[in-house]
Amino acid sequence: MASVLDPRLHTDTEVASQWRLMWWSFRRHTLAMVGLVVVIMLYLTGVFAEFLAPFDPQSASSRHVYHPPQMIHFIDSTEDGWRIKPWVQAYTLERDPFTLQTTFNLDEGNRIYLTFFGKGTPYKLMGLFPGERRFLVPENPRDRFFLFGADRLGRDMLSRTIFGTRVSMSIGLVGVTLSLMLGVLLGGISGYYGGWVDMGIQRLVEFVLSLPTIPIWLALTASLPPDWPPLTRYFAITLILSLVGWTELARVVRGRFLALRAEDFVIAARLDGCSEKRVIFRHMLPSLMSHMIASVTLAIPVMILAETALSFLGLGLLPPTISWGVLLKEAQNIRSIAQAPWLFVPGAFVLVAVLALNFLGDGLRDAADPYAQERG
Amino acid sequence: MKQTQGRLVTAVSALALSAALGAEAWAQTYDEAPQLAERVAAGELPPVEERLPAEPEVVTPIESIGTYGGQLRYGLRGSSDHNNILRMVGPQGLVRWNMDYTEVIPNVAHEFEVNEDATEFTFHLRPGMKWSDGEPFTADDVLFNMLDLVFNDEFAPTPPRYMTDGTPATVEKLDDHTIKFTFTAPYGDFLAELASPLGQHPVLYARHYCSQFMPAYNDQIDELIAANNASDWQNLYLAKCGDIEIPARWGNAERPTLDPWIISEPYTGGAVRVVMERNPYFWQVDTEGNQLPYIDTLLSPIAQDVESLILDAMGGRIDFQIRHLDAAANRPVLAENREAGGYEFVEASSVGGVNMIINLNLTHKDPELRELFNTRDFRVALSLGMDRQSIIDTALLGDGEPWQQGPFEEHPNFHEQISTQYLDYDPDEANRLLDELGFAPGADGVRQLPSGRPIKFQVDVIPTLQPEQVDMLELIEQYWAEIGVDMDVNALERTFFYERTSNSNDHDAAVWGGQASWVPGEIPQQIVPVHHDSRWGIPWSFWYNSGGERGEEPPASVKQRMELYDQARATVDPEARRALIHQIADIAAEEFEVMGVSKAVPTYGIVKTNLMNVPPAMPSSWYYPTPAPTLLTTWYWAE
Amino acid sequence: MLLTYIVKRIIWTIPFLFAVSLVSFALIQAPPGDYLTTFAATLAQSGDMVDEQRLEALRTRYGLDQPFIVQYWKWISGVLQGDFGISFEWQQPVSHLIWERMALSVCLALSTLLFTWAIAFPIGIYSAVRKYSIGDYIVTTIGFLGLALPNFLLALVLMYVGVVYFGANVGGLFSQEYQMAPWSWAKVVDLLEHIWIPVVILGTSSSAALIRIMRANLLDELNKPYVTTARAKGLSEFKLLIKYPVRLALNPFVSTIGWAFPQLISGAVITAFVLSLPTAGPLLLQALLAQDMYLAGAFILLLCTLTVVGMLVSDILLALLDPRIRYQ
Predict the structure, then answer these.
(1) Which band of pLDDT confidence, cut at 50, 70 and 90, is reported for residue B308?
(2) What is the ipTM of this complex?
């Protein structure tokens, strides 16, 4: 407890804004900080995808079909001693012509040297800024290396995962923002006013909720015009996902609002003659913050996973668009489990993203909790 | 297992042989499965000699005489997989294809005659032959099928295969076991049509059972409709007796059939497995007089997902399966588990064609694109502008060979020019052709039409059909980008694809499977646009199929091929028919309308190592249909 | 007051269900084409061919060429008389196909719900009370692992491991010998032996959400002054916890019943598809993909009805649990 004995003594805590208070409180949670860093890194990865990816994610290579991941070495020992230079061991592909089983044999003595900030295939960052320097590229532009392995067309999984990060992380963010806006608005109105308004909005929520999600997805995505470009399709699918997602939030918010309405401070605010808008936005909404944040941190991965489910049905994003969902969909077969488990790397990214968002949400939640502020 | 020894006998000598053997077999007594013998002993069944026709078909097993018993497990999918059952049980029509898929031989009919100009077809049925419930099968059944159903427009429109020039055949009963089809014009392909799975109509329904569901035969039909919750008699009829290509065919255990196995646990919406038991009245015997089939039961668990079928195969819970499993991508996994699963590979070889054929829409609604696609040099440039070998190495695991379309070298219908022209990867020549056409590259490297419009189009594909099609297209997209053509892969859900490309003609271009050997009974839709899979000229196919009422009148070169195709269908003599088909192919090769990437190389299904009489390789085709003509009735389990 | 509320709700249900049926019928019809185009496309996919003339004839027979509203009326007027129509694909009355599968689905959803609560409730309380302890992190991480792994992927991996390492078939709900057997005690036992796999797969993803909600709510309550007061008055920790905060934190928990149930059935579709379970899901998915509209329509209508009942139950429970909620 902060000890404020003399009312004339102003501590930082008292004059600090709400947001500053939240930041101080937030900083104290190590895991939340870690989560924040990871989430920021993931979003930065998405933003700088072209720079970070060693190769064009679509560029295929017949000699590297199902190439296993390579270990990166930093110390190169040659006959003349050693030097610091990143390299990977080269492999050659061998395929049984009948069973079509592939094996990669160590190409002894053949090392593929890599270089940081070297020149790779030219690109346009975010489709806007042209460039050709990439974070890590092979010295010889004809060489390829696969830190995360290669897929069935010999495409670099690292590059693909990086590009998938861009799409998946943003689909979660955009989708949840839309859901949140709808859910809080309608749920709040419903819970605050009660009566006929509540009845009406509740029926709407029930209506949307009682339509099973899979047919909705199926119908809506199937009716998307097929000649829409990938970007438009991406936004359309985000919109569809959020249309289904908002109801849950609305229902929960309403439940809380109903409870809050009877709280003393709301009655007090209303008796003070505050306008409806002010009561909702200044007094009730902030105390819903914690719940909303918990829901949002859960909703982002749900969006990501929903996109995967849509892909599984062949209705979500479709190649050549790359998302974690699309990548996992490509890995969803016995062949991948048995012979190319590295194709599940995007799953690990989903996992990390989900955990990071969760810890971040926890930290924010505690920071936003008005009752927890005073605790040491 | 040794290599298949196909039965290369002509239809006539096969008849003589089977008649001779049949007579011989009649003299001896027949043997039957132990479980049937028990039922005979218990008085539930008449003795085997009474159950078999006077002249059963005598089948020579390809390896050895078998022993009775056991079950054969194969995987079904939960929806729309009824034709998988059909392929296993076999379309037991009047005639069937021989094992090599080169000749039509008698099946339910024990012999047939065709007159000189192929207008009259006479079929002799087997006296004493019975339906699976023991009722006699006679010419009246054929009449019922043809007159009451096939030619009954109230039931369904008459399929064109029973008509010439729009006039249905005349069907006459010459005696109880002889039936004659007469056409108004020569119809050489008729036997092949009857041998296809779609040509089973004449012997599909048992009159004594199915007629009760028709108002013409049953006064109380309305009560029956009500009692069965059906909407009308047609619905009731389909629910009870099924039809060639609908799941309900396998949905009623009571329906009598001529099949080797009959339904005991039906294929319905809620089913988790389908079970079929031997037909005690089946009309084939082996050369030692043992009634076929050897195997007691066909058991098919229903899997919703192909992946779980693969797991079933790996776990040894499937005895034979080609369908669903044979994608090249599954082969490494299946190969690895051969020992654990106790199976080996069985080859299903196409006789011709490609697994992906690219159809530019030559009848495009947009005049500019239509003109572009109709420019032959443009199409040649596209063909030269892709590195087929590299595409094969990447997307097909190296399993393939550059090919445009049409039957392979070994096939009598092989046509060199149409199959092998413009296969080389020659981007310089492609660029030269495009330059010559005046399509100069714009700022972004994409070539432009004279109007300044960039050359940009989409190729429609169903990603779930053959996933490697998308992979191949994505690679082609990259190759074409290098010659300044901006192609986009447009993956579509299958219904949407079908609606857009086969119906409304809204596509720029589309890909489809292109396996073809141009044999009778098969539609050569990639050399003449007469089918909804001719996605390069859908309005032309409408025009052809509606007799000029719908669609769009095709150009002379297409019209000429349509006439040649009609002539080919009328021709009996295989050589003359081939000459006509080759004339079509000559024109098609000159026009170069469609292009392929790689030969449809053999695919591999699995078969248990101790399942005998299974040929190690069989033709792969729906018209055959794989594997039925390899005679599953002779398969048996080694000790 | 509660009674008036319930009556009001039930009256509401009728036009509501009507609207739901209209929209779901429209949704089924929204994808391009109809059952017959799908049918033809599916056959073509397996290399089979279908007669075009036959398709046209069937289209007229099934009334698929009629306008939407006519088709809807035909359907809904039948449903009101208990006739769900005919499944195009199976040529059977829909009512023959759905009930056993619906029953198994409800059974699976119920088991999953119980499993989820059994996991989420204690873990949620634990991780709220022991906030930021090692234990909290461990259970949170495990919960989120379950959430982050797509169900069908988990199902597929489990099946693969089952086949390759244990030689066992993980799919299905019954062993071969019980599949067609009439219901008996032995069959129930057999069901129990199989059902835990889908339950665990489905449960792993939904319990994480509930753990978080439980934890978040409880934390809200725990920080409120009345808890401090109670603690200051010397109430035992356990009693203190159970008496008020947990009860209040249950509030949103309870409101999940309404949607969790049909959501589980709908969400189980893909998992059930991969595991080839004989539940409603795969049949619904098939019917939807095949555009077998009366069959799909019946399933969707039933799911909607379940939801409405679930909502009703959850609202009543909400009112009972939290006396502060008063309905005017």
Answers:
(1) confident
(2) 0.75
Could you tell me if A218 and A265 lie in one domain? yes
Q: Do A100 and B492 touch (CB under 8 A)?
A: no
A285-314 per-position pLDDT tens digit: 666 666 677 667 767 777 777 777 777 666
Overall average pLDDT of the A253-264 stretch: 72
pLDDT bucket at B202, cuts 50 / 70 / 90 = very high
Measured between alpha carbons, how far is A1 from A24 in angstroms, rounded to an integer?
15
Whole-number Å distance between alpha carbons of B131 and B140: 13
Q: Is B251 on the interface with C (CB under 8 A)?
A: yes
User: Residue B172, SS3?
Assistant: strand
> Does A309 reach chain C within 8 Å, measured CB to CB?
yes
User: Which residues are bridge partners to B57 per DSSP?
Assistant: B284
Q: Domain B353-596: which topology?
A: Dipeptide-binding Protein; domain 3 (3.10.105)
A252 and A110, same domain (yes or no)? no
Chain centre distance of CA C181: 26
CATH numeric code, C94-321: 1.10.3720.10
Give the 3-state DSSP-derived string for B447-507, with helices as H, strands as E and coil as C: EECCCCCECEEEEEECCCCCHHHHHHHHHHHHHHHHCCCEEEEEECCHHHHHHHHHHCCCC
Task: Tell me if C282 and B304 make a contact (CB, 8 A cut-off).
Answer: yes
Q: What is the DSSP string of A333-373?
A: SHHHHHH-GGGGHHHHHHHHHHHHHHHHHHHHHHHH-TTTT
- SS3 at position B320: strand
Q: How far apart are CA A341 and CA A343, in angstroms?
A: 5
SS3 percent helix, strand, coil of chain A, rounded to 5, is 60, 15, 25
Spatial contact of A351 and A38, defined as CB atoms under 8 Å apart: no
Whether the Cβ atoms of residue B4 and residue B615 lie closer than 8 Å to each other? yes
Asked if A319 lies within 8 A of B474 by C-beta distance, the reply is yes
- Considering CB atoms only, which of B331, B333, B493 is closest to A314? B493
Highest mean pLDDT among B172-176, B466-470, C79-83, C263-267: B172-176
Residues of chain C contacting residue B235, judged by C-beta atoms under 8 Å apart: 61, 86, 91
Token pair listed for A142: 């004809």
Residues sharing a CB contact under 8 Å with residue B151, sequence separation 6 or more, in sequence order? B158, B162, B168
Residues A170 and A135 in one domain: no
Cβ separation B332–A334 shorter than 8 A: no
Among B133, A297, B111, B497, smallest CA distance to C37 is for B497
**How confident is the model over C113-155, as pLDDT tens digits?**
888 888 888 888 888 888 777 888 788 777 777 777 777 778 8
| Alpha-carbon span B379 to B386, nearest angstrom | 12
pLDDT value of position A312: 67
Nearest of C321, C94, A79 to residue B231 by alpha carbon = C94
Residue among B395, B398, B491 minimizing CB distance to A318: B491
With beta carbons less than 8 A apart as the criterion, state whether B626 and B322 touch: yes
Residue A32: closest CA among chain C residues belongs to which residue? C132
Residues of C with CB below 8 A from A224's CB? none
Query: Hey, where are the domains in chain B?
Result: 2-204+243-348+603-637, 353-596
* A31 in any annotated domain: no
CATH class belonging to B2-204+243-348+603-637: alpha beta
Pairwise CB contact (< 8 Å): C284 & A206: no
Global pTM?
Answer: 0.82
Distance CA B412, CA C327 (A): 84
The residue type of A53 is A
The answer, yes or no, to whether residue C43 has pLDDT greater than 70, is: no
Between residues A332 and C254, which one has the greater pLDDT?
A332
Percent of chain A with pLDDT over 70: 79
Q: What is the maximum span of chain A, computed from C-alpha positions, in angstroms?
A: 88
Q: How many helices (H) and strands (E) does chain B have?
A: 22, 26
β-pairing verdict for B76-77 and B297-303: parallel
Tell me: do A220 and A124 sit in the same domain: no
